[in-house]
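TICKET: design request
STATUS: open
ATTACHED STRUCTURE:
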């Protein structure tokens, strides 16, 4: 899980080209949930030094907001690459803003298995032969 998170945040920070596997997307989402829970816990702990409980929540959600802003571009890049994996344009993400149905449709798309082989957006990220070629090139 940590490897997928590092791949998304550090190696592909603003990379909107190529394709992303389902596992890359879902491990990143799982890491986000865990990180947000940790940030909220630490924020409430730090905020508990204040006299008011509202201040503790303000500190916790303030830290979450800052983290959200820092991770927004890698998240959007990952979603676009995930859409590319199923043969859709990155602009297709805007369907998410259709009330009620949009979020559900994007969830279905994120769960959909990617296209096999080469598509308009690049080679199949699951293709082990391509991964072996890349490993061989790195060794040379």
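STATUS: resolved
RESOLUTION: sequence designed for all positions
ATTACHED SEQUENCE:
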């Amino acid at each position: 899980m940590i490897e997928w998170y590092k791949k998304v945040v550090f190696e592909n920070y603003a990379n909107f080209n190529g394709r992303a596997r389902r596992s890359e997307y879902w491990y990143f989402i799982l890491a986000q949930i865990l990180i947000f829970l940790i940030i909220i816990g630490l924020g409430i702990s730090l905020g508990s030094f204040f006299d008011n409980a509202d201040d503790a929540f303000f500190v916790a959600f303030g830290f979450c907001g800052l983290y959200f802003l820092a991770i927004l571009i890698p998240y959007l890049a990952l979603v676009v690459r995930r859409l590319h994996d199923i043969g859709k344009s990155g602009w297709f993400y805007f369907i998410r803003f259709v009330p009620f149905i949009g979020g559900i449709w994007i969830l279905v798309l994120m769960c959909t298995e990617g296209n096999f082989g080469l598509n308009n957006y690049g080679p199949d990220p699951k293709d082990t032969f391509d991964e072996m070629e890349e490993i061989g090139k790195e060794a040379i």
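CLOSING REMARK: The two ends are 28 Å apart (CA to CA). The chain has a mean pLDDT of 82.
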